[in-house]
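Cobyrinic acid ac-diamide synthase
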Amino acid sequence: MLAIAGGKGGSGKTTTTACLARGLAGEGPPPIAVDGDCDMPDLHLVAGTCPRPGIGAYEDGASLDEVTHSAVELPGVEVLPAGRGGVGALEATLEQLAATPRPVVVDTPAGASPVVATALRAADAVVVVSTATPESLEDAAKTAAMARTLGTRVLGAVVTRSAGQIEPEPLLGCQTLAHVPDVTAPLTDGTVAARYDRVVDEVVERNI
Protein backbone atom coordinates (compact mmCIF):
# COMPACT_ATOMS: atom_id res chain seq x y z
CA MET A 1 0.00 0.00 0.00
CA LEU A 2 1.35 3.38 -1.06
CA ALA A 3 0.21 6.68 0.46
CA ILE A 4 0.45 9.96 -1.43
CA ALA A 5 0.89 12.87 0.97
CA GLY A 6 2.02 16.48 1.23
CA GLY A 7 1.63 19.48 3.46
CA LYS A 8 0.00 21.93 1.06
CA GLY A 9 -3.36 21.73 -0.65
CA GLY A 10 -3.15 22.00 -4.42
CA SER A 11 0.32 20.48 -4.61
CA GLY A 12 -0.77 17.71 -6.98
CA LYS A 13 -1.43 14.78 -4.64
CA THR A 14 -4.64 13.70 -6.34
CA THR A 15 -3.12 13.92 -9.81
CA THR A 16 -0.11 11.96 -8.56
CA THR A 17 -2.42 9.31 -7.10
CA ALA A 18 -4.27 9.03 -10.41
CA CYS A 19 -1.14 8.89 -12.57
CA LEU A 20 0.62 6.31 -10.39
CA ALA A 21 -2.47 4.10 -10.23
CA ARG A 22 -2.80 4.29 -14.00
CA GLY A 23 0.85 3.36 -14.43
CA LEU A 24 0.52 0.43 -12.05
CA ALA A 25 -2.46 -0.85 -14.05
CA GLY A 26 -0.02 -2.03 -16.71
CA GLU A 27 2.20 -3.88 -14.25
CA GLY A 28 -0.10 -6.51 -12.74
CA PRO A 29 -3.48 -6.85 -10.98
CA PRO A 30 -5.85 -3.88 -11.31
CA PRO A 31 -4.85 -1.27 -8.73
CA ILE A 32 -7.26 0.36 -6.29
CA ALA A 33 -7.02 4.13 -5.88
CA VAL A 34 -8.50 5.17 -2.53
CA ASP A 35 -9.73 8.68 -1.80
CA GLY A 36 -8.60 9.17 1.79
CA ASP A 37 -9.58 12.84 1.88
CA CYS A 38 -12.78 12.50 3.88
CA ASP A 39 -13.43 16.25 4.14
CA MET A 40 -12.74 17.42 0.57
CA PRO A 41 -12.78 14.33 -1.65
CA ASP A 42 -12.03 14.90 -5.32
CA LEU A 43 -10.35 11.77 -6.66
CA HIS A 44 -13.67 10.74 -8.20
CA LEU A 45 -13.71 13.99 -10.19
CA VAL A 46 -10.23 13.39 -11.60
CA ALA A 47 -10.95 9.74 -12.36
CA GLY A 48 -14.43 10.24 -13.79
CA THR A 49 -16.32 8.03 -11.32
CA CYS A 50 -19.31 8.28 -8.99
CA PRO A 51 -18.64 9.80 -5.55
CA ARG A 52 -20.43 6.99 -3.70
CA PRO A 53 -20.86 4.33 -2.45
CA GLY A 54 -17.44 4.43 -0.92
CA ILE A 55 -15.43 3.94 2.24
CA GLY A 56 -18.36 4.21 4.64
CA ALA A 57 -20.34 1.55 2.78
CA TYR A 58 -17.31 -0.76 2.71
CA GLU A 59 -16.93 -0.48 6.48
CA ASP A 60 -20.65 -1.25 6.82
CA GLY A 61 -20.23 -4.56 5.02
CA ALA A 62 -20.53 -3.85 1.31
CA SER A 63 -18.21 -5.91 -0.86
CA LEU A 64 -15.17 -4.39 -2.54
CA ASP A 65 -16.84 -4.88 -5.92
CA GLU A 66 -19.84 -2.88 -4.71
CA VAL A 67 -17.84 0.16 -3.62
CA THR A 68 -15.11 0.37 -6.26
CA HIS A 69 -15.80 2.12 -9.55
CA SER A 70 -14.06 1.68 -12.90
CA ALA A 71 -12.28 4.93 -13.69
CA VAL A 72 -13.28 6.41 -17.03
CA GLU A 73 -10.16 8.58 -17.15
CA LEU A 74 -7.83 5.89 -15.77
CA PRO A 75 -8.20 2.64 -17.72
CA GLY A 76 -7.57 -0.43 -15.60
CA VAL A 77 -7.95 1.41 -12.29
CA GLU A 78 -10.69 0.89 -9.71
CA VAL A 79 -11.50 3.90 -7.53
CA LEU A 80 -12.76 3.61 -3.95
CA PRO A 81 -14.23 7.05 -3.21
CA ALA A 82 -14.43 8.61 0.23
CA GLY A 83 -18.22 8.65 0.08
CA ARG A 84 -19.57 9.47 3.52
CA GLY A 85 -16.67 7.89 5.37
CA GLY A 86 -14.74 9.48 8.23
CA VAL A 87 -11.42 8.69 9.86
CA GLY A 88 -12.78 5.58 11.59
CA ALA A 89 -14.18 4.21 8.35
CA LEU A 90 -10.92 4.97 6.56
CA GLU A 91 -8.89 3.14 9.19
CA ALA A 92 -11.13 0.06 9.01
CA THR A 93 -11.10 0.12 5.22
CA LEU A 94 -7.32 0.36 4.93
CA GLU A 95 -6.93 -2.50 7.41
CA GLN A 96 -9.08 -4.66 5.14
CA LEU A 97 -7.32 -3.54 1.97
CA ALA A 98 -3.93 -4.43 3.47
CA ALA A 99 -4.82 -8.06 2.81
CA THR A 100 -5.53 -7.62 -0.90
CA PRO A 101 -2.87 -8.72 -3.40
CA ARG A 102 -3.77 -5.74 -5.59
CA PRO A 103 -1.76 -2.51 -5.50
CA VAL A 104 -3.44 0.14 -3.34
CA VAL A 105 -2.67 3.86 -3.73
CA VAL A 106 -4.16 6.20 -1.12
CA ASP A 107 -4.75 9.89 -1.79
CA THR A 108 -4.49 11.80 1.51
CA PRO A 109 -5.59 15.30 2.51
CA ALA A 110 -3.16 18.16 3.03
CA GLY A 111 -1.59 18.77 6.41
CA ALA A 112 -0.97 16.56 9.42
CA SER A 113 -4.50 15.62 10.48
CA PRO A 114 -5.57 12.33 12.10
CA VAL A 115 -6.77 11.24 8.65
CA VAL A 116 -3.27 11.66 7.22
CA ALA A 117 -1.76 9.81 10.18
CA THR A 118 -4.23 6.96 9.67
CA ALA A 119 -3.25 6.58 6.02
CA LEU A 120 0.46 6.78 6.78
CA ARG A 121 0.24 4.11 9.49
CA ALA A 122 -1.54 1.75 7.12
CA ALA A 123 0.83 2.30 4.20
CA ASP A 124 4.03 0.42 3.45
CA ALA A 125 5.55 3.59 2.03
CA VAL A 126 4.70 7.17 1.15
CA VAL A 127 5.47 9.43 -1.79
CA VAL A 128 5.68 13.04 -0.67
CA VAL A 129 4.30 15.58 -3.16
CA SER A 130 5.21 19.26 -3.25
CA THR A 131 5.33 22.14 -5.65
CA ALA A 132 8.71 23.78 -6.15
CA THR A 133 7.99 26.73 -3.84
CA PRO A 134 9.96 27.02 -0.58
CA GLU A 135 6.76 27.12 1.49
CA SER A 136 5.40 23.94 -0.07
CA LEU A 137 8.73 22.14 0.29
CA GLU A 138 8.95 23.11 3.96
CA ASP A 139 5.48 21.66 4.55
CA ALA A 140 6.45 18.54 2.61
CA ALA A 141 9.47 18.13 4.87
CA LYS A 142 7.09 18.10 7.85
CA THR A 143 5.03 15.41 6.14
CA ALA A 144 8.13 13.31 5.54
CA ALA A 145 9.16 13.73 9.18
CA MET A 146 5.67 12.71 10.31
CA ALA A 147 5.84 9.57 8.18
CA ARG A 148 9.18 8.59 9.68
CA THR A 149 7.85 9.16 13.19
CA LEU A 150 4.98 6.78 12.41
CA GLY A 151 7.41 4.21 11.03
CA THR A 152 6.41 4.58 7.38
CA ARG A 153 9.14 4.48 4.75
CA VAL A 154 9.50 7.62 2.64
CA LEU A 155 9.99 6.27 -0.88
CA GLY A 156 10.80 9.69 -2.30
CA ALA A 157 9.38 12.98 -3.49
CA VAL A 158 7.51 14.17 -6.56
CA VAL A 159 8.02 17.87 -7.24
CA THR A 160 5.19 19.30 -9.31
CA ARG A 161 5.09 22.43 -11.46
CA SER A 162 8.84 22.06 -11.63
CA ALA A 163 11.37 22.42 -14.41
CA GLY A 164 13.97 20.71 -12.25
CA GLN A 165 15.98 23.67 -11.04
CA ILE A 166 15.36 22.85 -7.37
CA GLU A 167 16.74 19.72 -5.74
CA PRO A 168 14.94 19.22 -2.42
CA GLU A 169 16.80 16.14 -1.15
CA PRO A 170 18.65 17.94 1.68
CA LEU A 171 15.42 19.43 3.00
CA LEU A 172 13.18 16.39 2.58
CA GLY A 173 15.77 13.75 3.42
CA CYS A 174 14.76 11.52 0.52
CA GLN A 175 15.40 11.06 -3.18
CA THR A 176 13.55 13.06 -5.80
CA LEU A 177 11.58 10.58 -7.87
CA ALA A 178 10.35 13.03 -10.50
CA HIS A 179 10.06 16.67 -11.47
CA VAL A 180 6.67 17.09 -13.13
CA PRO A 181 6.14 20.13 -15.38
CA ASP A 182 3.18 22.47 -15.06
CA VAL A 183 0.74 21.60 -17.86
CA THR A 184 -2.94 22.24 -18.47
CA ALA A 185 -4.05 18.61 -18.80
CA PRO A 186 -1.63 16.38 -16.87
CA LEU A 187 -3.58 13.15 -17.39
CA THR A 188 -3.18 13.38 -21.16
CA ASP A 189 0.30 14.89 -21.36
CA GLY A 190 3.03 12.55 -22.61
CA THR A 191 5.86 14.21 -20.72
CA VAL A 192 3.93 14.03 -17.46
CA ALA A 193 3.14 10.36 -18.07
CA ALA A 194 6.81 9.61 -18.69
CA ARG A 195 7.83 11.31 -15.43
CA TYR A 196 5.28 9.35 -13.43
CA ASP A 197 6.31 6.13 -15.17
CA ARG A 198 9.72 6.57 -13.50
CA VAL A 199 7.99 6.64 -10.14
CA VAL A 200 5.97 3.55 -11.05
CA ASP A 201 9.21 1.75 -11.91
CA GLU A 202 10.54 2.59 -8.44
CA VAL A 203 7.36 1.37 -6.76
CA VAL A 204 7.45 -1.91 -8.69
CA GLU A 205 11.17 -2.39 -8.04
CA ARG A 206 10.62 -1.92 -4.29
CA ASN A 207 7.63 -4.30 -4.41
CA ILE A 208 5.31 -1.82 -2.69
